[in-house]
Amino acid sequence: MGTHTSESECEKCGGKSWVVEDTRYKSTEQHCLNENCRHYNVDAGTAKNENLLHGVGTNTPEEWLDVLEDAGYKKCSKCGSVDEDMDDSSPLCEDCSPE
Fold this sequence. Notes:
Blueprint: E1 3-9, E2 16-22, E3 27-32, E4 39-43, E5 55-58, H1 61-71, E6 74-75, E7 82-83
């Protein structure tokens, strides 16, 4: 039992998605990392109640940035790519950083 994170293909745009699965509640969250898509699909499983997000939709730009932060991803301020391996001290991805 526990919570597991992984990446998968977005069911809407085909881009990279962040996935969280919780075996305790049999819940699954998929959040697209593509800023132009921002699609999510959340099945709260057995933890469904009025205080939890449940369903399919599109995050607002602000909500999308919150998801990135919660997931440990950053958006490059130059090229817009999203990655979890970016240097915390720089707003740029590895490809855009001056050497």
